[in-house]
Write a structure and sequence with these properties.
Strand order of the largest sheet: 5-4-1-6-11-8-12
CATH architecture of the largest domain: Alpha-Beta Complex
Largest sheet: 7 strands, mixed
Distance between the termini: 43 Å
Low-confidence stretches: none
CATH superfamily of the largest domain: Spore Coat Polysaccharide Biosynthesis Protein SpsA, Chain A
Number of domains: 2
Strand content: 25-35%
Structural class: alpha/beta
Radius of gyration: 21 Å
CATH topology of the largest domain: Spore Coat Polysaccharide Biosynthesis Protein SpsA, Chain A
Mean pLDDT: 94
Number of helices: 7
């Protein structure tokens, strides 16, 4: 079986953090989240993976290489302009057609959803498309999916207000497709699964299903709130990632330096090469690689981007700060 990781988006919801860091390279416990996604796919025996790159494409290639470091083989689609989630998959038809079914997942997913079970569900129903679904109490920020007793998708809601939701099942962005899905995506076009492909499958009463991943963990790190949530869950042990070890609720990266009289309170992440100077204090925050918290500064409930310097004596509270110029 083959897979494609969608990684071409700009991740504007995480600005300014992602003005100089592409979405696939957003770090989760010091490692690009797309690496965690690759390991997730590999854990289900998927070794042939494609990914589309657009924004800072060279940086992504440099970080991932040919995939051999992770035990997979990576194939890149370098888009001259973004063609939408479905459009990007259509451009990889030749690569993906050799696998029926195949998997599509977002580079910002963090999950332990049982992909084998979703594929079995898909095959048993002879589905064209199967969406992985998880239950969520608060669905205001998600696409809600309505299914019948057989799991067939009968409706969608986009970010409903409390009390208006028709379901508490949300779309994880983890998809299983049969090769016949390519007939539903016009060639050389900007086309989206959520906005175009899926509504038309439903309207046509096609074999379009939702797989309820009961008990699965899932988080989309594409917003500051959810990025903080997954970090907190990992540090407190509510969820674990393969090949990641956490001791206590503070994760400290390689060659990080913390002054003896500085204080770091969890749940916090101190990335590779971070410096926390004398009398500084870090509380419930995420410091990306190379950040510096200068003498006496306080960083609380904040995210500090790669290489950013928090000036001496500064008090950051519930802030997101980052260098916005690649040369800074």
């Amino acid at each position: 079986m083959k897979a494609m990781i969608l990684a071409g988006g700009l991740s504007t919801r995480l600005y300014p953090l992602t003005k100089t860091v592409p979405k696939p390279l957003v770090p989760v416990l010091g490692e690009p989240n797309i690496v965690h996604v690759i390991r997730y796919l590999k854990s289900f025996g998927i070794g042939e993976i494609a990914t589309n790159v657009f924004y800072f494409a060279d940086a992504i290639r440099a970080a991932l290489g040919d995939g051999s470091r992770f035990g997979v083989r990576l194939t890149y689609l370098e888009e001259p302009s973004l063609s939408g989630s479905a459009g990007a998959v259509r451009l990889m038809q030749q690569f993906l057609s050799g696998s029926d079914p195949f998997v599509v997942v977002g580079c910002d997913d963090v999950t332990n959803l049982d992909l084998d079970a979703q594929v079995r569900f898909h095959r048993e129903r002879g589905a064209i498309a199967t969406i992985g679904l998880v239950e969520c109490n608060d669905v205001r920020e998600y696409g809600v999916v309505v299914v019948n007793d057989e799991g067939k998708i009968v409706g969608f809601q986009e970010k409903p207000q409390p009390g208006e939701e028709r379901s508490h099942l949300v779309n994880t962005g983890i998809y299983v497709f049969s090769a016949s899905i390519f007939e539903r995506i016009p060639a050389n076009s900007v086309y989206d699964f959520g906005k175009q492909v899926f509504p038309r499958l439903q309207q046509d009463n096609a074999a379009f299903y939702g797989f309820k991943a009961t008990g699965a963990y899932w988080c989309d790190i594409g917003t500051p709130h959810e990025y903080r949530r997954v970090t907190r869950d990992l540090l407190t042990g509510a969820f674990t990632l393969p090949e990641t070890r956490v001791r206590g609720d503070v994760w400290i990266g390689y060659e990080a330096r913390i002054a003896s009289d500085a204080v770091v309170c969890g749940p916090s992440v101190v990335g590779d090469g971070v410096v926390v100077e004398s009398a500084a204090r870090v509380e419930r925050s995420i410091l990306w690689q190379g950040a510096v918290v200068e003498r006496g500064a306080v960083v609380a409930d904040s995210i500090v981007g790669a290489g950013y310097r928090v000036a001496a004596g500064t008090n950051l509270n519930h802030a997101i700060v980052a260098n916005e110029d690649p040369q800074t």
